[in-house]
Design a protein that fits this description.
Elements (H helix, E strand, L loop, with lengths): L4 H26 L28 H13 L30
Keywords: Membrane, Transmembrane, Transmembrane helix
Organism: Paenibacillus typhae
Protein name: Zinc-ribbon domain-containing protein
Length: 101
C-alpha cells in the first residue's frame, strides 16, 4: 500500500516550490541588482530592478515623490539607514560614509 495520489502530488508540488524559491533567493543574494522590500541605498549605488516595470506610471507622481525625497534627504543615512539629526553633518555618525549635500 502506497501513499494516496493526493499526498504524493502535494509532496512533489512543495518540493518543486522549495527548489524554485531556493534558486530565486540564491540568484537574488548573489546578483548585482538585488530585489528588496526596503532600499536604504541611493539610486546611484544600487538601482531598483522593478523600476523598469513602473516607469509607465504618471510623471507627476514621480516628481512629487522626488520632491518629498529631497526634503527628507538629510534625515537619514542612505547607506545604513540611521537618523542624521544635524543637517550640517557631512558624514554619517554611525557608518562614517559621506552624506550627499
Amino acid at each position: 500500500m502506497g501513499a494516496p495520489v493526493f499526498f504524493v502530488a502535494f509532496g512533489v508540488i512543495f518540493v518543486g516550490l522549495a527548489v524554485v524559491q531556493g534558486i530565486y533567493h540564491f540568484k537574488n543574494a548573489t546578483g548585482k541588482n538585488r530585489m528588496s522590500l526596503m532600499d536604504i541605498t541611493d539610486r546611484n549605488e544600487e538601482p531598483d530592478p522593478l523600476d523598469t516595470f513602473f516607469q509607465q506610471s504618471a510623471n507627476s507622481d514621480h516628481h512629487n515623490h522626488e520632491s518629498r525625497e529631497s526634503d527628507n534627504a538629510l534625515s537619514y543615512c542612505p547607506y545604513c539607514g540611521s537618523k542624521v539629526t544635524n543637517a550640517a553633518y557631512q558624514f554619517c555618525p554611525r557608518c562614517g560614509k559621506a552624506l550627499e549635500s
